[in-house]
Write a structure and sequence with these properties.
By secondary structure, this protein is an alpha/beta fold. It is about 45% helix and about 15% strand. The chain has 11 helices and 10 strands. The strands form 2 sheets. Strands 1-2-3-5-7-10 form a 6-stranded mixed β-sheet, with helices on both faces. A 4-stranded mixed β-sheet has the order 4-6-8-9. A hairpin with a 2-residue loop joins strand 1 and strand 2. Helix 4 packs across helix 5. The mean pLDDT is about 95. The chain binds hexanoyl-coenzyme A. The site of hexanoyl-coenzyme A (HXC) has 21 residues, from helix 2 and strand 6. Hexanoyl-coenzyme A binds next to helix 2 and strand 6. Keywords: Fatty acid metabolism, Isomerase, Lipid metabolism, Lyase.
């Protein structure tokens, strides 16, 4: 399918989505969000695709929601459209593993989109921030919630109350970047990481990410129970039988994604 604001490509079992509004540093306009939503639904329904990589360009992952679109909105406009609501957070409810490959600016909604992914790979030039306060608003796509869960209250407050940007190293130290790679290697490394995940069992990966997400959604005792039930569920898959048999037979596993 052809899109105007994103590029969606297939590389084996990997779907690569590239934000494509370079002139405005990939500002996330509503049309782009709608295209992302459509692409994610197609990828989720396609059994031949098991991992997604989301990226931008060398200068910007995304510099936030499109300010030109929002500037004159009234409360009733943003409320009625539920800006920032489920349609904007589709990536957070995506069921397959998602990797954000971030180079350049990941600000505001751009940072929030990265935070909706399971793994954040940052190029050494990446800059993260929630600058909303500097334009008279606050994060609206989960920034105050996911960022706080990712890096803790005091670091999140530091970013959200000042709007300052942090580089890849500070973001990695804070715990929101999984790994830093040289800019030139960003997309190849993200694809390599995605291929590694795709070479394992897709249903087990889905169980695993659901278990990790439970840590953010619920209490410790509920989360531990959810983990246990998901762990038990892995025994209903052929891939668990294959994985353990292969280990005992000292051979590589041949996962069937079942
Ligand atoms: C619309 C944007 C934009 C944005 C950049 N541009 N960010 N347009 N929305 N978020 C446009 C600029 O207007 C400019 O267009 C072009 O992209 C290049 O940007 P420059 O500012 O000239 O580049 P530079 O000097 O390198 O500065 C880069 C920057 C700066 C530091 C990233 O662009 C910036 O501060 N952008 C805004 C960041 C921000 O506040 N994001 C949060 C948005 S609110 P022209 O036409 O002049 O070339 C948000 C809320 C989400 O995300 C929640 C909503 C529910």
């Amino acid at each position: 399918q052809d899109f105007n604001h994103i590029i969606a490509e297939r590389q084996g079992a990997i779907a690569l989505i590239t934000f494509n509004r370079p002139k405005v540093l990939n500002a996330l306009c509503t049309a782009l969000i709608a295209e992302l939503e459509t692409a994610l639904a197609l990828i989720e329904a396609d059994d031949s695709l098991s991992v997604i990589v989301v990226t931008g360009n060398e200068k910007a992952f995304a510099a936030g929601a499109d300010i030109t679109e929002m500037a004159n909105s009234l409360f009733t406009d943003v409320f009625a459209a539920d800006i920032g609501g489920p349609r904007w957070q589709r990536l957070a409810n995506f069921r397959k593993p998602a990797i954000a490959a971030v180079a350049g600016y990941a600000l505001g909604g751009g940072c929030e989109i990265a935070l909706m992914c399971d793994i954040i790979l940052a190029a050494d030039n990446a800059k993260f921030g929630q600058p909303e306060i500097t334009i008279g608003t606050i994060p609206g796509w989960g920034g105050s919630q996911r960022l706080t869960r990712a890096i803790g209250k005091y670091k999140a407050m530091d970013l959200i109350l000042t709007g300052r940007q942090i580089n890849a190293e500070e973001a990695e130290r804070a715990g929101m970047v999984s790994r830093i790679v040289p800019l030139a290697d960003l997309v190849p490394e993200a694809l390599k990481l995605a291929e590694k995940i795709a070479s394992l069992s897709a249903p087990i990966a889905m169980l695993a990410r659901e278990a990790v997400d439970s840590a953010l959604e619920t209490t410790l005792s509920e989360g531990l129970k959810a983990e246990r039930r998901l762990f038990h569920a892995s025994f209903a898959t052929q891939d668990q039988k294959e994985g353990m048999a292969a280990f005992l037979e000292k051979r590589p596993p041949a996962f069937q994604n079942k």
